[in-house]
Design brief:
- The protein has no helices and eleven strands.
- By secondary structure, it is mainly beta.
- The radius of gyration is 13 Å and the shape is globular.
């Protein structure tokens, strides 16, 4: 499994960004695709996930109502639309994948930096 994240950048508080994660290497119908983030000096934390088949989604409380995860099956791409961004959203964002049957995410892409200025 290969995951390629992109779309990070610098944005002012209140602004929006869309992250993309291009996935390849296998069929993802039995996978959850997720986004995580890690801020400086902090542990990596869960942001959102989507089940590839069916499209059910789950979000961290800190981003509910502001972030939306989606997937484009023909493009094998997962998106994270981020709106109403806050300085505390500043972090390196990672996309990840796991089988529905497993607990841990075991495929990770490289990170993309998101910086929100106040």
């Amino acid at each position: 499994v290969q995951l390629q994240a992109s779309g990070g950048g610098l944005v002012q508080a209140g602004g929006s960004l869309r992250l993309s994660c291009a996935a390849s290497g296998r069929t993802f119908s039995s996978y959850y695709m997720g986004w995580f983030r890690q801020a400086p000096g902090k542990e990596r934390e869960f942001v959102a996930t989507i089940r590839w088949s069916g499209g059910s989604t789950y979000y961290a409380d800190s981003v509910k109502g502001r972030f939306t995860i989606s997937r484009d099956k023909p493009k094998n791409t997962v998106y994270l639309q981020m709106s109403s961004l806050k300085p505390e959203d500043t972090a390196v964002y990672y996309c990840a994948a796991k089988l529905v049957s497993t607990e841990r995410y075991d495929h990770w892409g490289q990170g993309t930096q998101v910086t929100v200025s106040s």
